[in-house]
Amino acid sequence: MEIIRTTVQLVEYISKVKERGLRIGLVPTMGALHDGHLSLVERSVADNDITVVSVFVNPTQFNNPADLATYPRDEQRDITLLAGAGASAVYLPTVEEVYPEGTSAAAGYKYDLGTAAEVMEGKMRPGHFQGVAQIVSRLFRLTRADVAYFGEKDFQQIAVIRNMIASEGIDIRIVACPIKRADDGLALSSRNALLTDDQRRRAPIIYRTLQSSVEYSMTHSVRETHHYVVSRLNDVEEMEVEYFEIVDGRTLLPVDDWRESRWIVGCITVYNGKVRLIDNIAYRKEN
Ligand code: PAF
Questions:
Q1: What is the pLDDT of residue 271?
Q2: What is the structure's pLDDT at 58?
Q3: Does any domain span residue 185?
Q4: What local confidence, expressed as pLDDT, does residue 74 receive?
Q5: Helix, strand, or coil (residue 19)
Q6: Are residues 228 and 107 in the same domain?
Q7: φ, ψ for residue 227 (rounded to 5)?
Q8: Catalytic (active site) residue 37
Q9: Structural domain of residue 48, as residue ranges?
Q10: Which of 120, 145, 177 is the last residue of a domain?
């Protein structure tokens, strides 16, 4: 596996790959890899000739400096895992490499991300999706990837990235991959490493509640289902729901009635102590 740290090296590597007419899959990550990331890498390795993985904790998508400072990092372990998963190259740039003119200069350009970027994470983390669009569009352009893989845990992020490639005219296919969960149902996330033992023990209740709410939703309104989820989770020690939105799976706009859409998803963010966990579940999914 090639270890690439600079943009110049990356561009050279990609040119050689393109000269050979090979198909490139990209898996963008912020490192602290877990089986969820590795499932994206494995999917890309199966689908493409070359798989490039980026490992970069992108400062411009963090609106909370403490969150950025505590974000887990383990470069050596990431490299070992990626080599084991069959990645062809890992791109591990520094912040200066990605933003040579500083991160505030990068904020000058505003991406058109549509209304999907204004709700939920967009509301709670101002500037977050602009930061995601900055780094992801740069990675798409530098790697000239044919296809990029993202996990459905970040359901809204995928919708926003689709809007970004449409407005920027970037020719790439986005593949959304299913959420990977621990045996007890907790969605895998790099942030899980920050949970204390007690918080980790309690965390699976998030998914269990979402699952039982699907059954509940068959006989109750959207409003009642919303209340069911939020009240149950807020009753758990150290847990506080930041938002729970029941939305149309395509537009991400809230629905008031189950008949409004054939694709309805519940998206949740819960503070478990100081650790912010996100998850989602489909209530209705068209075939
Ligand atoms: O989902 C993530 O880990 C990040 O938002 C991404 C897509 C790698 C951009 O930094």
A1: 98
A2: 98
A3: no
A4: 96
A5: helix
A6: no
A7: -65, -40
A8: yes
A9: 2-177
A10: 177
pLDDT of residue 185: 98
- The DSSP bridge pattern shows strands 264-272 and 275-284 to be antiparallel
| Strands of the 239-248 sheet, one edge to the other | 239-248, 264-272, 275-284
Domain count, the chain: 2
Yes or no: say if 19 and 139 are a contact pair by the CB < 8 Å rule: no
Predicted local confidence at residue 133, as pLDDT: 97
Given the residues 37, 220, 226, 227, the one annotated as active site? 37
Check: pTM over 0.85? Answer yes or no.
yes
Task: Please report the pLDDT score of residue 103 as a whole number.
Answer: 87
Q: Is the domain of 212 the same as that of 274? A: yes
Tell me, in angstroms, the distance from the centre of ligand 1 to residue 30's CA.
Answer: 6
Contacts of 184 (CB under 8 A, 6+ apart): 204
CA distance 105 to 96: 12
Do both 52 and 113 map to the same domain? Answer: yes
Is position 24 within any domain? yes
- What is residue 245's predicted lDDT score, i.e. its pLDDT? 98
Residue 246 falls inside a structural domain: yes
* Segments of the chain scoring below 50 in pLDDT: none
Q: Is residue 130 part of a domain?
A: yes
Q: Within 6 Å (CB) of ligand 1, which residues are found?
A: 28-30, 58, 61, 132, 135-136, 154, 157
28 alpha carbon to ligand 1 midpoint, in Å?
6
CATH number of the domain where residue 65 is located: 3.40.50.620
